[in-house]
Design a protein that fits this description.
This protein is mainly beta. The chain has a single domain, classed as Maltoporin, Chain A, CATH 2.40.170. 6% of the residues lie in helices and 59% in strands. It contains five helices and 37 strands. It has a 22-stranded antiparallel barrel. Strands 3-8-9-6-7 form a five-stranded mixed β-sheet. Strands 1-2 form a two-stranded antiparallel sheet. The longest helix has 18 residues. The two termini are 25 Å apart.
């Protein structure tokens, strides 16, 4: 990698002239973000540290799903959803159940009642993604105990424009067909949007097909699941005047997947498969108004229905059918008062309702026919400009839950602009906040039965809510047009942490009987560092490193699936005026897998790994881009015979594709 960076540096001068007049050449730090304070702020000015995945970055790396868009963010740990195809995200050692995923500030349903599957959201129409780490319950409620990921869609503009994109991919000799030249993956996207000053619309569709992969095309087993995904959406907006508007959008997501594996029933291996059909229907709505005095009011809500049908087959015969329905209804209203005595007050209220039904072979697996919970919440925030350099953010939320009663959480943030001289700027940010998360319906009632794989996870109705205290202390030094350095120390103390209780899981008839439990105390702490260097107008370098220390404070043991070291290195190089090379290196140290004394995995560690992605974008015409991408170019793949190995599942993948923009809009490059 060192030799590669030196080579890039030597070649940067040739690309500099080609990019000197391109207004998109340098990644700016003046992006507007909303997640940290629930109001628009300049990225440098927000008192809450916010990391951004830009629209240009997603176009540059040819990301297709939310998982692909987030995997290069330092400090985010993306792992497979246990027992099904899909991916979940954790941050700062807090689990995916404790991270809230939003679309334009509104929650998205979890795939199994608690964990959002990042691969189930296709990102056509996304403008950028904002990531806030640490307890954010004061701003967003109990599900944000570990942090927030907010997907921001593009604003509609007058005129008419659109995009079409198509790409094909191959797993090489791991294609299920056995033919390396035959595409095993295909993706297509189309989008049309525009309108007048008052009426605007967007229509979009995304479809992705992956035949999966296998280390032996002649065998029944398929290590990578076969998946078909499609997502269709429409949005309408009425803006009769610049300071007021209403919007309505709807989307339909569909997924069909098949997993193949062998089950050992001595003395034979029995071919087994799991097939899942998923639908997600989502309707969002809202409106906002801004008065001449500066007061701003907005109301927005979402109603989402998620349906999963899973069939388990043995020798092609159906042995078990599971049917689950999850419902989410969310409504929030917020008022931002005009600035007064250097203070900006914000008041709001939120209503949430969740439902879950679950049956196997027609019989309910829940304590009753349906599990339901709802909460009413009130939040308040005051952003105080103490001086030109000092800013204080105070916030609190009160929540009344139908099952767990009332609870309140505070948060305090402080920003000090210690350097503002010429092209140099420096910031210090500090925050302390409490997190709070009520056990979700899955953890309390859901039965995740994978007896065919040797385990069952059983819900625990006696679970108590989790609580945490999160401290963040960070410093940023930036030089305009040249780069930035960002350091952040974090510490999270969790009480009544909810996890699968591995240490006390009995084995009954060869099946591990896991259940959720409150681990009394846990801590995660560490350091995050990120650097961005605009070496020249033709070459950008970036790097990120995370050190994580975690502990179950009751037992003194490390928490599982939390690697101590992880890193990200990236380079964007304009080889010519029309050709860009994007390199993304990801590395991770080994990690503890299990502390269950009844498991063969006890004290086992998954090995560390390094992967490299490379994408070449050739801008053939002003609105047409051709690309070639190699994911996991080093072909670092786990040993599927080693139950301790949780290295990358998918080996080398090669993709070729094109994107064409038409009308007034054009993807940033």
């Amino acid at each position: 990698m060192t030799l590669l960076l030196l080579a890039l540096a030597r070649a940067a001068g040739a690309a500099e002239a080609a990019r000197a007049d391109d207004p998109q050449a340098v990644a700016r730090l003046d992006t507007l973000v909303v997640t940290g304070t629930r109001s628009e702020k300049n990225l440098l000015d927000t008192p809450v540290r916010t990391e951004v995945v830009s629209r240009a970055e997603m176009a540059r790396t040819q990301a297709r799903t939310l998982k692909q868009a987030l995997e290069n963010v330092p400090g985010l740990l993306i792992t497979e959803v246990h027992g099904k195809p899909g991916f979940e995200v954790s941050m700062q050692g807090l689990s995916s159940d404790q991270v809230l995923v939003l679309i334009d500030g509104l929650p998205i349903s979890a795939s199994t009642g608690s964990t959002v599957d990042l691969s189930q959201y296709l990102i056509g129409g996304v403008d950028h993604i904002e990531v806030v780490k640490g307890a954010s319950s004061a701003q967003y409620g109990s599900a944000a105990m570990g942090g927030v990921i907010n997907v921001i869609t593009r604003r509609l503009a007058p005129g008419l424009n659109g995009q079409v994109a198509l790409d094909l991919g191959s797993h090489g000799d791991q294609n299920p067909s056995g033919a390396a030249w035959q595409p095993a993956l295909g993706h297509a996207r189309a989008q049309l949007e525009g309108g007048s000053e008052a009426w605007r619309f967007r229509l979009n569709g995304d479809a992705l097909r992956d035949d999966g992969f296998t280390t032996d095309p002649s065998a029944w087993v398929r290590q990578g699941a076969k998946i078909e995904r499609s997502q269709w959406g429409a949005r309408g907006q009425w803006q009769p005047q610049a300071n007021a508007g209403l919007w309505l959008d709807g989307s339909h997501y569909r997924e069909n997947s098949e997993q193949r594996f062998d089950f050992f029933a001595p003395p034979n291996l029995i071919p087994r498969s799991n097939r899942e059909d998923v639908t997600r229907n989502r309707i969002g709505y809202g409106g906002q108004w801004r008065g001449d005095s500066g007061v701003r009011a907005q109301v927005q809500g979402v109603s989402e229905r998620y349906h999963s049908e899973v069939g388990e087959f043995s020798n092609a015969a159906l042995t078990q059918a599971r049917d689950a329905h999850l419902g989410t209804d969310h409504l929030t209203a917020q008022v931002d008062l005009p600035p007064w005595l250097r203070q900006s007050w914000q008041l709001g209220t939120t209503f949430n309702r969740e439902t879950l039904t679950q049956s196997v072979n027609g019989a309910s697996e829940l304590d009753g026919a349906r599990a339901t919970r709802h909460s009413d919440e009130v939040f308040v925030q005051n952003d105080v400009m103490l001086s030109e350099r000092w800013e204080l953010l105070l916030g609190a939320r009160w929540q009344n839950d139908s099952d767990f009663g009332a609870h309140s959480v505070p948060k305090l943030g402080l920003r000090w602009s210690w350097l503002d001289q010429g092209e140099w700027s420096g910031l210090l940010r500090a925050s302390v906040g409490q997190g709070y998360r009520v056990p979700n319906l899955k953890e309390r009632h859901f039965r995740f039965d994978h007896s065919s794989l040797g385990y069952v996870v059983i819900g625990n109705p006696a679970l108590r809510p989790e609580a945490s205290t999160s401290v963040q202390l960070g410093a940023q030094l930036a030089r305009s047009e040249r780069g930035s350095l960002d350091l952040n120390l974090f510490a999270n103390r969790v009480r009544d942490l909810i996890q699968v209780d591995e240490a006390r899981a009995p084995v009954v008839n060869g099946i591990s009987q896991f259940s959720y439990a409150n681990l009394s105390r846990a801590r995660t702490q560490g350091l995050e560092a990120a650097a961005l260097w605009h070496l020249s107008p033709g070459l950008d370098l970036r790097a990120g490193y995370t050190f994580l220390d975690s502990e179950n404070r009751d037992t003194g043991t490390q928490l599982t699936r939390r690697p101590r070291h992880s890193g990200r290195i990236g380079a964007d190089w304009w080889v010519r005026a029309d050709t860009e090379l994007a390199l993304r290196l990801r590395l991770q140290s080994d990690e503890l897998i299990s502390t269950n004394p009844n498991s063969q995995l006890v004290d086992g560690r998954s090995p560390g790994w390094v992967t490299l992605d490379a994408t070449v974008n050739y801008h053939w015409r002003p609105q047409t881009t051709l690309f070639a991408a190699v994911t996991n170019a080093l072909d670092r793949q786990r040993d599927f015979a080693d139950a301790n190995d949780f290295s990358p599942e998918t080996g080398r993948l090669i993709r070729l594709g094109l994107r064409h923009d038409f009308g007034a809009a054009r993807e940033p490059i």
